[in-house]
Design a protein that fits this description.
Helices cover 39% and strands 16% of the residues. The protein has helices at residues 43-48, 87-101, 113-124, 144-159, 171-176, 186-198, 201-211, 214-225, 244-251, 269-272, 274-285, and strands at residues 3-6, 9-16, 28-32, 54-58, 106-111, 129-135, 231-236, 257-262. The longest helix is centred in the middle third of the chain and has 16 residues, at 144-159. It contains 11 helices and 8 strands. Helix 2 (87-101) packs across helix 3 (113-124) and helix 4 packs antiparallel against helix 7. Strands 1-2-4-3-5-6-7-8 form an 8-stranded mixed beta sheet, sandwiched between helices. The chain is of the alpha/beta class and 296 residues long. It is globular, with a radius of gyration of 18 Å.
Length: 296
């Protein structure tokens, strides 16, 4: 299996390309998944646009098949150990991945927590991004009581992940119910449940604290306001995880951000209504002629 060592951590990745699993020299689009997930839920979207892009999908540190801890003692990441699970550290991981792949400038498509990471990346490395698509992202106000309750509940959820849960009848449907407006095939829901169960404990727990925090509530509005790269923010009309209104508020902070709300979808519009999602994405990308960016 293909792994890239990024600051001492082994990251699993896949290429989805029109002619197979090797880049062909087309423009490159990099996909980032959200909390508890893996690159698997981006595969169908990548396959749909592989006629125009070489698609690079990878598992974030501690999720999917990527390792959760440093395996090389001499590795020195560009962030302090105390910030290992800060979203900004994941943005630096992405820069390290692009360096290793020999990619100077790419397109980004990111979802949920991955979209927050992509926003930070866009502002710290704007010269490396042609255009960005942020799916199910937005800004929120800090509520100390609600956040503490969310963290407490999230801690219980992360601790209770026995392997046998994935074998229970209908567990995958129950697990995905709050994320969806439209149901997904059982195989996709099962993959989501398995990814959640297999996620590294420290990564899963600590990214809850960093993604939904007072710091994030204060910083993300500034980050959205600072975006200079053309960006499409896609929201699901009935998303209860990151409501469309949060996306609307974020999009209003920069004239470089365009908002698209996908009707009758929730937190996974790219899977719930792929045709509409792809139409909006292709329209956004068509506004600029892609420039070739291939691995060296």
């Amino acid at each position: 299996m293909p792994y890239a060592s990024i600051f001492g951590v082994e990251h699993y990745y896949e290429w989805v390309c029109e002619a197979g699993d090797q880049p062909s020299g087309k423009p490159v689009m990099v996909f980032l998944h959200g909390w508890g997930g893996s690159l698997r839920y981006w595969q169908s979207t990548a396959q749909a646009i592989a006629d125009e892009f070489d698609c690079l999908l990878y598992d974030l540190r501690g999720f999917g098949r990527s390792r959760g801890v440093v395996t090389l003692p001499e590795a020195v990441p560009p962030y302090e150990e105390s910030d290992r699970y800060a979203l900004e550290s994941y943005a630096h991981d992405l820069a390290g991945l692009l360096d290793q792949m020999g990619l100077e400038r790419v397109y980004l498509n990111a979802h949920s927590t991955g979209a927050s990471i992509a926003t930070l990346f866009v502002n710290r490395y704007p010269e490396r991004v042609h255009r960005a698509i942020l799916t199910c992202s937005g800004i929120f106000e800090y509520d100390e009581r609600a956040f503490k309750a969310f963290h407490k509940f999230g801690g219980y959820v992360v601790k209770f992940r026995p392997p046998w849960l994935a074998r229970l009848p209908f567990a995958n449907r129950l697990f995905m119910a709050r994320f969806l407006r439209r149901s997904l095939p059982d195989a996709i829901s099962q993959a989501f449940l398995e990814d959640f169960i297999q996620a590294d404990y420290d990564a899963a727990l600590n990214t809850i604290y960093t993604a939904v925090s007072e710091r994030a509530a204060l910083e993300m509005p500034r980050e959205f306001a600072a975006i200079t790269v053309p960006t499409l923010l896609v929201a699901g009309e009935y998303d209860i995880i990151i409501p469309a209104e949060m996306g609307r508020q974020a999009a209003q902070l920069s004239d470089r951000v365009e908002l698209a709300v996908i009707p009758e979808t929730a937190h996974f519009p790219m899977l719930e209504d792929p045709e509409t999602y792809l139409h909006r994405v292709r329209s956004f990308l068509a506004a600029e002629q892609p420039a070739t960016s291939s691995p060296s």
